[in-house]
Amino acid sequence: MDISQKNALGLYWTPFGGNNVNDIWASCHCFASVAKDEKTGETQKNVILIDMGQHETPDEFTKGAYQTVVPALDDILKVPGSPDPKKENTLDAIFLTHSHSDHINGIYEYVRMGVKLPPIYASEFTINMVKKGFVEKDIDWNLIPEFRPIKSGETVQIGAMKVEAFQAPHSIPGSFAYKVSNPHASLFHSGDIKADHSSYLGESLNPEHMGEISKSGGVDVMTFDATATDREGFARQEKDIFDTYTELFEKYSDKQLIAPISAGHMERLATVIAAAEKVGKHVIINGGSSMQSHIMGLSASGIRLEELFPKIKVLSYKNPETEQLDLKNTVTITTGIYGDPKAPFIKALRGQSTIFPMQKDAVVIAPLVGDRYEKLQKIIKRSPRAANMTFITAMDRPDLYGSGHAQAEDFKYIAKLVAPKTVIPVHCSQKMAETLMFLAKSQNYQTMNRPVRNGETLHISSETGIERVDSKVPEWYGLRHPKNQFGDTTTEFHKVPDNGFSIPKTKSFKEKRLEADKKIAEYKNQHKNAGLLHATRRNANER
Ligand SMILES: [Zn+2]
How far is the CA of 103 from the centre of ligand 1 (A)? Predict the structure, then answer.
């Protein structure tokens, strides 16, 4: 969105990613404020981003050509190597909702492209996770942007624009929704959210705080997480999932218990530990590097699991104290629900791990359905170690499963607190967007005549309503990070059109890669000015 061309008082909103035709990926929302300064009468313009995500599965988009795909933000950022780089950033600040990679990983890629980012506001936990990413991805610390931690309830003023953070239960701590407003318009951006009133990490929905919005007259627009609003009822609450785990832990209290969960699902980690505490079993955490990294993020933010659950021992598998524990009196929390061959539990099933003590008659309790269930089923069938183990999945116990996203009743509940005039679905495919639009209409909220797509700009005003003012075919940056002869990570990138490269799915990966390379060469040829930049750690300081 080119703010120099935008002059109507109010807010402008452009989704750069997250409102895709066929899937969720790469959340990235731009909000621009145009306001009159009451004292001087001058027009004030400010631009912020909420989230800066990456495409989770770039192979589907560019058929193996890139490791990462992020929205092209040349309108608001000076991207060296872009065909027509801006003289300077117009972006004033970045706000992050939470630390999932489809909301934050664009930060790393833009820094690697040599872009100087403005200050980043987020919860302490989110910031800790982003910082850890810089270390894990081997990015020069000199390039790290400035981070400004904020708390739920805090309001940040960017020119005439106010941005207030609200606790938004999702599945990971420190998740925020934001209210964005100026004297001429207001908007509530839900982020990834569900209306959960129970949280063992202490971050449930705060209806008093959120309800202040409706009490003060509501907002013009609510952009809402439509990932799961096609499901009826409320998303399962952590306390209900706690009940299910507790019941199963009690039933198999004389066995070693193994509970695989998703590595970054810290809310669920706490729920499972709470259930273990309830039945008096100690917890061993053996989930590989990603889970460990998240737990370190928790403790860096002052959340220590051993302090939250003082009645039992919560130990890393590396802690020698685990050797003193009777395995029958423990719950091992691990990863591997996606069948990842590197996950310690999967390695243990395959007999490739000696650091994962597993008794012959252990009971495994995992929230698996569909593809994931079948994948694990295959591994179990081939594993002699699993022959006498008991597996309980969400196929037998659907109540083990709980999503981090709002379902229909969550939406209705949150909408009442926020009182929007108009509801616009985000974080969804076109089809999911339509489902939420019907639901919103049934609750007497206004919606748009069709879902808003990436690259479209809406003007929002309390006085004149909503108008679609711009539509640009969205572009993306595809990136690769090959190592150079010194072993340093380098960055290659260029623009990728929105439709990616259509190569038949039937081809082998190598064929796809070759064909994609050919298509990229053609594309680059057509767009001769498109930049290709090699940014290495070595020369990063010279920029
Ligand atoms: Zn998320």
Answer: 7
Q: Thinking of the domain 238-400, which architecture would CATH place it in?
A: 3-Layer(aba) Sandwich (3.40)
Assign domain 3-234+403-475 to its CATH architecture. 4-Layer Sandwich (3.60)
Q: Convert the pLDDT of each residue in 2-21 to its tens digit.
A: 888 899 999 999 999 888 76
Q: How many CB atoms lie within 10 A of CB 482?
A: 10
Compute the distance from residue 471 Cα to the ligand 1 centre, in Å: 27
Structure tokens at 275: 């259930």
What tens digit of pLDDT does each residue of 404-451 get? 899 999 999 999 999 999 999 999 877 888 899 999 999 999 999 888
Distance 105 CA to ligand 1 centre (A): 12
CA–CA distance, 282 with 302 (Å, rounded to integer) = 22
- The token duo for 2 is 């080119």
Residue 538 pLDDT greater than 50, yes or no: no
- CA of 413 relative to ligand 1 center, distance in Å: 20
Written as six digits, the tokens of 424 are 């616009």
pLDDT in tens, 65-119: 788 889 999 889 998 877 677 778 899 999 999 999 899 999 999 999 989 999 9
460 CA distance to ligand 1 centroid (A)?
Answer: 26
Task: Report the C-alpha gap between 385 and 389 in whole angstroms.
Answer: 8
CA nearest neighbour of 125 among 98, 93, 155, 107 = 98
Cα 102 to ligand 1 centroid, rounded to whole Å: 7
